[in-house]
Amino acid sequence: MPADLPRTAPVSLLDAGNPFAAPSALPYELPDFAAVRVEHFRPAIAAGMAAQREEWEAVATDPAVPDVANTLEAIERSGTLLRRVMTVFHTLASSVGGDEIHAIESEVAPRLAAHGDAFWLDRRIYARLESLAAAAPLLGLDPETQWLLDTYRKNFQRAGIRLDDAQQERLRGLNRRIVFLQTEFSQRVVKGLEAGAVRVTDPAELAGLDEGTVAALARNAADRAGSTLSMPGGGHLVTLMLPTQQPLLARAADRGLRARLLAASVSRGTGVHPDPDTRATLLELARLRAERAGLLGYDHHAAYVVEDGTAATTEAVNEMLARLAGPAARNATREAAELQEVLDADPAVADGTRLAASDWAYYAERLRRERFAVDDDVLRPYLELGTVLEEGVFFAANRLYGITFHELPLAGYADGVRVWEVREGDGAGLGVFVGDYYARAGKRGGAWMHTLVDQSHLLGQRPVVVNNLNITPPPAGQPTLLTWDEVRTCFHEFGHALHAFFSDVRYPSLSGTSVPRDFVEYPSQVNEMWMANPAVVARFARHHVTGEPLPPELLEKVLSVGAYGQGFATTEYLGAALLDQAWHQVTSAQVPTDVADVAAFEAEALERAGVALELVPPRYRSTYFNHTFGGGYDAGYYAYIWSEVLDADTVEWFKEQARDGDGGLNRVAGQRFREALLSRGYSQDPLESFRDLRGRDAHLDPLLVRRGLTD
Q1: Which residues have a Cβ under 8 Å from the Cβ of 287 and sit 6 or more positions away?
Q2: Distance in angstroms (rounded) separating the CA atoms of residues 125 and 484
Q3: What are phi and psi of 274, to 5 degrees?
């Protein structure tokens, strides 16, 4: 067991040689990852918590009448050291991992929960906020400051400030345990990605895969020599991605390999591999979250979560998901019938063979090639990662917003991590962008964005933003070639980055993407539209050897796919979103009595929602649903489709701003989107930002058309 983290450690005891003792000297306070060692974290975290406790105590005991400077701004300024160390720690925990980092993560998570409770349950600070609110009409607060004050008061109330002493003590215990379990779940999910890897000893099973992919799988095996995944004599290793569907399912011609691969994916966390078994953890999490919601006065955890979002009620969420589930399942069933016909025509398959879930992606890809003449293997040579970024993602941002990108010769925290300075059109510095695009052992799956420094006029800081993907690294010296979906992910995550870069707020807690979960995906989804813009595609879709552009007829075929396959895509997404709601709409009394078998609960929830399709497993099964049980999107996975309503409507707005056939890719439209929405952060009601842009509430019809869900 690691040494216990000190409960107190005054800042003066943090050795000057610790890289967290002072702000980084690198541009924009980009952390100096090269100077950080694991042993620096424990003393820095302890000192950071101790320093912030002192800062909070100074606010709570200030004899002066509460005002903006001595209360709100003092709170916002607090925790500088703790933020500095935790952004680096969380980056390494999620993107590098390792036993030492995970040990500290498990150790510190409940301490941080208790640290947060020390603030949110401090009645003295809350009383100062209430006093300030009472005086606000006479103070003439600006709108952002008034919003911040109201937000703090609301969050204190949601955190349990009105509970009595005994209730608060129980709440503190619940919060510590919940955070510990979330950390444990996330770590086990990462272990499950490794433990579930599929060994391939017969090269014949790799039929259908290109030489680059086969070489990458051989490298996977070689890189794990000496580990539990070691393969004496060589071989190939297929490592898993976070979602249920695995990329190789669409390309592997061997039906047995496809079956093994999907079986390995869906069995994660179920006890097949004992160490990553997550079932007991998620059951306890569901129970404790439900108990906490009841203690705070809510029917269930989902009601607690949604109150802080733009959806506002679980009824609104349930209504939308139910409205989409029926049409999506019907479309998926129709797609399955088409794929059965393709399978029946496959001479390599015995007569009478029924389509299996592991066959879906492979025959969907075949049908896509036949119907639309689109083949990912044909597209990949035109989609090289560096070109996609610099001539696609960055080019679109330049055309819309005038910003430019300048690579810096700075080391990241792992091989392959790249760093750029982002500048305004007039050359003024805007911030730093860090790109971490490759999968590695210890890195959690999926794609995400996070910040290392948040924009804030109060603190005089500009943003440092990280984008994370999990692209399989190519063999040494070979180019990184992407699928069309991976290109989409690059644009999506950079949409989050733009939200952070263009933040123009005073207070750090309102900066950039610090908006409700069911709004945060909206700007990133909008940014996906530019990958299909003719001017953008002409820049990034070029053959990595010859430089020849993607043939126009091939691009036309890619875009003509339209809503094809959306029955499957929408149904698998809704399966996960509905599971998330099902787990979190149970009460504390129901969990121990009605929820004891994870698989049975899942099956019943999917059947009840009308999306229990054997051929379309949910995008995430409960046992590896890190979004919801690892924390962050618990009872909030519906946010992606909720945000997509705003996104689809905004895509129509951009089209209305088109000039000379540019599809809206112009500085006038970009500047309007930046000013009305991206710059606002959480300085006002996010839906007001949308209305400022659109002049009305969002319409659902564009989403229904996009996903092929209209009558």
Answers
A1: 588, 591, 592, 595
A2: 51
A3: -55, -40
Whether the pTM exceeds 0.85: the reply is yes
45-77, pLDDT tens digit by residue? 999 999 999 999 999 999 999 999 999 999 999
Sign of the CA dihedral with 653 first, then 655, 660, and 666 last:
positive
Q: State which amino acid sits at residue 644.
A: E
- Helix 598-609 with 566-584: angle, nearest 10 deg: 120
| Amino acid in the structure at residue 279 | R
d(CA 524, CA 530): 11
Which CATH number is 380-554's, of 1.10.10.10, 3.90.940.20, 1.10.1370.40, 3.40.50.720?
Answer: 1.10.1370.40
Residue 2 pLDDT greater than 50, yes or no? no
Distance CA 603, CA 9 (A): 49
- Does the pLDDT of residue 593 top 80, yes or no? no
pLDDT, averaged across the chain = 94
Contacts of 337 (CB under 8 A, 6+ apart): none
Handedness of CA 311, 641, 522, 454 (dihedral sign): positive
Which residues are catalytic, by number? Answer: 493
Q: CA–CA separation, 612 vs 592, rounded Å?
A: 24
CA 280 to chain centre: 24
| 233 contacts: CB under 8 Å, gap ≥ 6 | none
Domain map of the chain by residue range?
Answer: 11-120+122-159, 195-266, 380-554
What stretch of H or E contains 448? strand 448-453
Query: Residue 171: pLDDT above 90?
Result: yes
pLDDT given for residue 591 in this prediction: 67
640: left (phi over 0), alpha (psi -120 to 50) or beta: alpha
Higher-confidence position of 187 and 561:
187
CA 361 – CA 291 distance, rounded (Å): 40
CB-based contact 620:243 (threshold 8 Å): yes
Confidence of residue 264 (pLDDT cuts 50, 70, 90): very high
Q: What is the pLDDT of residue 4?
A: 42
Confidence at residue 8, expressed as pLDDT on a 0 to 100 scale: 41
* Of residues 707, 694, 385, 387, the one with CA closest to residue 564: 707
Number of other CB atoms surrounding residue 100 within 10 Å:
14
| CA gap 212, 231 in Å, rounded | 20
Q: State pLDDT tens for residues 477-517.
A: 999 999 999 999 999 999 999 999 999 999 999 999 999 99
Q: State how far the alpha carbon of 710 is from the alpha carbons of 308, 318, 328, 402, 704, in Å.
A: 30, 19, 10, 38, 6
Q: Given 1.10.10.10, 3.30.420.10, 3.90.650.10, 1.10.1370.40, which CATH number is that of 11-120+122-159?
A: 1.10.1370.40
| Closest by CA position to 240, among listed 231, 228, 229, 248 | 248
Q: What angle do CA 448, 451, 456 make, to 5 degrees?
A: 145
Report the distance separating Cα 15 and Cα 514, nearest Å: 32
